Amino acid sequence: MLQLAMPVNLAPPDKLLPVPGTYLACLAAGIYKDRRDLVLIGLAEGSTVAGVFTKNAFCAAPVTLCKAHLQETGSRYLLINAGNANAGTGSQGMDNARLCCQMVAEQTACEANQVLPFSTGVIGEQLPMDKFEAAIPQAATSLSADNWNDAAETIITTDTIAKGISKQMNIGGQTITITGISKGSGMINPNMATMLAYVATDAKVESKLLQNVIEQATDMSFNAITVDSDTSTNDSLILMATGQSGAMITDSNIAEFQQAINEVCLHLAQAIIRDGEGATKFVTIDVTEAKDEAEAKTIAYSVAHSPLVKTALFASDPNWGRLLMAVGKTDIVDLDVNKISLWLGKTQLLESGEPAANYTEALGQLEMAKEEITIRINLARGSANTKVWTSDLSHEYVRINAEYRS
Amino acid sequence: MLQLAMPVNLAPPDKLLPVPGTYLACLAAGIYKDRRDLVLIGLAEGSTVAGVFTKNAFCAAPVTLCKAHLQETGSRYLLINAGNANAGTGSQGMDNARLCCQMVAEQTACEANQVLPFSTGVIGEQLPMDKFEAAIPQAATSLSADNWNDAAETIITTDTIAKGISKQMNIGGQTITITGISKGSGMINPNMATMLAYVATDAKVESKLLQNVIEQATDMSFNAITVDSDTSTNDSLILMATGQSGAMITDSNIAEFQQAINEVCLHLAQAIIRDGEGATKFVTIDVTEAKDEAEAKTIAYSVAHSPLVKTALFASDPNWGRLLMAVGKTDIVDLDVNKISLWLGKTQLLESGEPAANYTEALGQLEMAKEEITIRINLARGSANTKVWTSDLSHEYVRINAEYRS
Location of site Involved in the stabilization of negative charge on the oxyanion by the formation of the oxyanion hole (chains A, B) (predicted)? Predict the structure, then answer.
């Protein structure tokens, strides 16, 4: 019954393009036994950096420190380790995160608050500081411009595949490059935390604008995916702009730049769902004609998080009673179910609250058997639409999450 | 790896006591192939009836009709079928529910709106009305006072065991009896819906007071349990008071009566969790010193619903990072994690946000290996406490819910 974990329609990234002004080193610090686990990213002077972070109240030490450093000054280095999340580690965890930044600063002649720290892996264990001490000098001397594919592989934890994408576009006659990588497989893994994503461009983007761009892109990508409703203590998404292409992002070209960043973030976010823990399906929940965006998201997540919907998806069972249940169970007070229509792919299940006349179990079965499934819910009570992406709930999900430490 | 579904520390009910003024018939109407599936309950004239129902917007036809009938007049009969939920059945489903009530009314010489209908089972299929037509006359002529154990068995769907409890107490020198039965195994089952519970007493309780009593009892019992966060379209809890004992519930004895009803409801609700789909653990989430009751429940349910906490419970893995994550992921804005303390049973994990000094993995393992586990979360920011009960997330849960129709 158990099947091998395999991502849904996702291959490893093609050659990721170097981004002028970024330099990467990837090495095995020994946090894991037998693989690379540490990435150092250097940024050209004058780069701007923006970020969005987990809203979990128990956010990990590196997240707290990273947010503080971003506020204080311009950033020159990012230090990312896999294998240990430095979360739930109390005040010693914070001291260790600070020490990591100091080590990078000493090796690179910058200030400690110009270094942004990121950790992903086991929660509740202190970082092995001796290993960082040994590895950081080595990392600082092996920075290389063309190292994004290695970085994508180095930051993964329980992911089954590296995730990344590159894009080029023309801004005012100049070619700019955008390269992004991400990791994550559940919102939080066994004991392993986290979604991490890093997107770099050689466009020149003023700090405030860059923050705006990343927040907008997050809303329709990383904030519209869910594997299991659980939110990691370490989630971080960073957008870096080195300016090395000379192309400046301004009011006249911001729309197309935003669009490109959106596309990169959507790819990276969807890749996490396609590689979701135990995922056998890639599912789009498409809510239309809601009263407002918040209502649309409430309904979409109620369906996306429902264990009974997710097990039906795993079973390829057109069990539409569970969809009704999940749409109806939110606390939206005046939802009129007699207006709601439902589709599985192009097959209509429900028309204004009544079972659709032409629906047959065989038609539903046909849609549910697909690897990529769209559930569309029309509320007929407004003009807000939203899309959320999720995976199914399989035996493999339980196996991964129940048996990880055994 | 898969194990046989077995409830956690729950045996079938002992002999349930008859409640003077209630009469029950249980028979096989043929909705299921080879078991009893229909219960008719008659109530003595002058009985009062109160109810609480699912808040799911897609509530089933019988629920809508039952609520209307309860408003309109005094109730004399309850008709309960297993095997078909009459949910997601549109206007024909409502017609069928009405017809069921009319059939009972014709056989018993009462009005159709004195009949309360309940259905549990498959969603999205119309009731087999010919079977009701054949069975209802038979039910009306076979009502018997001492039939509660049979009723408890007849209303179950995917439950592995019948659930019930009886209690007697002294009210002003008179003995009153309380007998309750319940069914449910997920908040909603495969394709099968629902938690149903019926509690009867021969005390005399005025209608409004009775409604008050059942709402208070629900808050600390049925509204404090969760298997999978999914809310059925058919959930119903009914409290009936026949008054046949002659003991009248008044201001002077309401407290002890409320306490007895609370205990009966808590037993029936916890029995549902102990028989939860695939449950191998019975878990109490005990949140203390929250700012208010709502905040306490938000935190408790965040932990109780977390798939990662639930898979760790299944694995008996003291993976306390997941508990931190689940406490932290709610949207309570000013939660100070440096005040939070956490215990597994009597073993402290976290003291005011720092890892507890004496904690060892072996101690955590010892607690997690138990069949009954208490997770205590002290927020140190107020005086509100709450308890929520839940089960774990096992292979069996996925098997039951993914493979039911195959």
Answer: 120-121
